[in-house]
Amino acid sequence: MKTPAHIAVTGAAGQISYALLFRLIAGDLLGDDHPIVLHLLEIPEAMAGLDGVRMELIDCASPLLHDIVISDDPYVAFENVDLAFLIGAKPRGPGMERKDLLRVNADIFAIQGRALNVAAKRSVKTLVVGNPANTNALIAQHNAPDLPSENFAAMTRLDHNRAVSQLALHCGCSVNDIKRVIIWGNHSTTQYPDLHHALVRGKPALDQIEWDWYEKEFIPTVQNRGAVVIQKRGKSSAASAANAALEHMRNWLFGTPAGDWTSMTVLSDGSYDITPGLMFSYPVEIENAKYRVVQNLETSEFSRERLKITEAELLAEREEVRHLLR
Ligand code: NAI
Fold first, then answer.
1. What is the CATH number of the domain that holds 309?
2. FRET label pair with 138: which of 153, 177, 203, 235, CA 20 to 30 Å apart?
3. 41 lines ligand 1 (CB under 6 A)
4. Which runs of consecutive H residues, i.e. helices, occur in the chain?
5. At a CB cut-off of 8 Å and minimum separation 6, what does 247 contact?
6. Which protein family is it in (predicted)?
7. What span, in angstroms and rounded, lies between the C-alpha atoms of 135 and 313?
8. 146 and 169 in a common domain
């Protein structure tokens, strides 16, 4: 029997976690021979709800579920964890501006970054899902100076998956026939879903689709998909977000398939002329649990303009939270 993996999930009584936790204990991340200890963090007001989730987890009688720790203290919840899904965040309330949301959530991720720095395993891989995800990940990383910066990421995998599915639907093929889609930049409407390097059935996507569809339908559809799901469901994407978080972490641990890459928000090292030190979504290949930004892709004028737009938004977000950065 393998040693149990300790997995932290924050916002554990929320809707994304409700879709994620039961998949974790079914072995969807680490396989059906790897026991798990869940470390669930919530705010005090949500602890009763979290206790209900804990009861349901127990009621699954999962042979993989070794133990459950629940706490409203991040220093307790993060103790010795191998993986951390930072999902919990405050939703935007009535009359709240994006800036206010950024400030409220920024403090949460500063506190949690500090707690990870002290309590988690030195090798902990941290995936930030809670919005604004890129900037929250930047804050958490800055507040955890003793952990490797490359072990912090934010989630643009849902956007990546949305792009893959939209392209497959348009081309009348399977998602298995789509490779090398890219989401660049921020997990927001300024993100740039790029098909310049994408392949459909092994051939360039842009030779098989109309430019007009790409520019006027595909890009806005992917950028605005989250808002449309909210309009229809009355709640934000949850099961697809949990699925994306799981796939992001699975690729990070076990690698990307040969001939393909994925999109992942990581610390910019200046690749593609993006300001170093921003949390920016890039195409990455992963091997031996380490990501590498795919290099030397040609960027057209069209692409460069869009990269600059999403970079500018991230720079503005960073200014708002500068007091929390080192
Ligand atoms: P939710 O509102 O159902 O759950 C959030 C949970 O976080 C609540 O239970 C709340 O009590 C908890 N929470 C708040 N502050 C906390 C703190 N300081 N520590 C621990 N827990 C805390 O929200 P949902 O739908 O689960 O979404 C969570 C976040 O994920 C939101 O910020 C949402 O915008 C974001 N999201 C990100 C996506 C991405 O692709 N990166 C996609 C979909 C959602």
1. 3.90.110.10
2. 235
3. yes
4. 15-24, 47-59, 74-77, 98-119, 133-142, 157-171, 211-212, 219-233, 239-254, 301-320
5. 157, 161, 262
6. Belongs to the LDH/MDH superfamily. MDH type 2 family.
7. 10
8. no
* 7 CA → ligand 1 middle, Å: 17
Number of domains in the chain: 2
Residue pLDDT, tens place only, 154-207: 999 999 999 999 999 999 999 999 999 999 999 999 999 999 999 999 999 999
124, 154, 184 - which closes a domain: 154
Any atom of ligand 1 within 6 Å of the Cβ of 77? no
pLDDT 10s digits, 62-103: 999 999 999 999 999 999 999 999 999 987 777 777 788 898
Residue range 12-42, pLDDT digits in tens: 999 999 999 999 999 999 999 999 999 999 9
Q: Which of 110, 127, 154 is the last residue of a domain?
A: 154
CA distances from 161 to 36, 122, 244, 256 (A): 26, 30, 7, 14
How many whole angstroms from 87 Cα to the centroid of ligand 1?
5
Domain assignment of residue 236, given as a range: 157-320
Model confidence, pTM? 0.98
Indicate whether 305 pLDDT > 90: yes
Per-residue model confidence as pLDDT tens digits over 259-281: 999 999 999 999 999 999 999 99
Residue 187 lies in a domain: yes
Residues 10 and 136 in one domain: yes
